């Protein structure tokens, strides 16, 4: 990565003051959940379709960042199988251990999303961000999107998914643990995404009921994004 790239990424994050919330509880929850996550979400049709758009739309051999990669399934596996170079990032060491077993061809890093603002991972042709940003408090999400915009090379693509919900840092039970989530209604999500410098080239939604008794059905939103400037 050139010095100019590093300055551009850091500049995209200027003014971002972390809320000071302790995120370790989120990581510990997913460490405990482990491969039960894939058991609870066995049919990820929306994510698979969005991942296929990203994999097929990028030039061959693109460098792709998988934010909140979890167990590496299905997205990191999907992107590697399409011939791309994948760097996966997650807060959970337990999830990353599973990901390394599922997708040994990819590179996986333990990191908080906010830590990437220094450009340590370089720039990318594409980014997958499936349900990763919903783990942030709402005030952080626009800044995170601008930072991801800065990590993309000109014309780069991002597959983004969120759960449609008007909530901010809301505690929910999840597979015997508690996690905190945020969300937007879809019109507001579009505004936030465009405000971060992305063009929306495609959109879909899906009603999804996890195979779990403690999580209600949700509406999943999938946006196909291009770096607009």
From TrEMBL:
Molecular-function annotations in GO: methyltransferase activity
Keyword Transferase: yes
Record's keyword terms, sorted: Methyltransferase, Transferase
Highest taxon above the source species: Bacteria
InterPro entries listed in its UniProt record: Methyltransf_25, SAM-dependent_MTases_sf
GO biological process, one term: methylation
Residue ranges of domain Methyltransferase in the record: 64-156
Organism for this UniProt entry: Streptomyces thioluteus
Protein name per UniProt: Class I SAM-dependent methyltransferase
Keyword match Acyltransferase: no
Coiled-coil residue spans: none
């Amino acid at each position: 990565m050139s010095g100019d790239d590093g300055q551009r990424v850091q500049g995209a994050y200027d003014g971002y003051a972390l809320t000071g919330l302790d995120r370790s509880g989120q990581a510990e929850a997913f460490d405990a959940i482990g491969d039960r996550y894939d058991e609870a979400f066995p049919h990820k049709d929306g994510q698979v379709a969005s991942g296929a758009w990203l994999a097929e739309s990028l030039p061959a051999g693109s460098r792709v960042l998988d934010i909140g990669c979890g167990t590496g399934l299905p997205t990191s596996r999907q992107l590697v199988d399409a011939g791309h170079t994948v760097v996966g990032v997650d807060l959970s060491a337990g999830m990353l251990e599973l990901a390394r077993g599922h997708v040994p061809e990819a590179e996986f890093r333990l990191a908080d999303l906010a830590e990437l603002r220094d450009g340590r991972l370089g720039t990318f042709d594409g980014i997958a961000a499936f349900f990763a940003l919903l783990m942030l408090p709402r005030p952080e999400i626009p800044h995170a999107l601008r930072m991801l915009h800065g990590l993309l090379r000109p014309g780069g693509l991002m597959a983004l998914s969120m759960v449609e919900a008007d909530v901010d840092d809301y505690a929910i039970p999840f597979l015997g643990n508690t996690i905190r989530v945020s969300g937007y209604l879809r019109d507001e999500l579009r505004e936030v995404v465009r405000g971060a410098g992305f063009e929306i080239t495609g959109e879909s939604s899906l009603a999804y009921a996890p195979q779990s008794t403690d999580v209600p059905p949700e509406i999943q939103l999938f946006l196909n994004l291009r770096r607009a400037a």
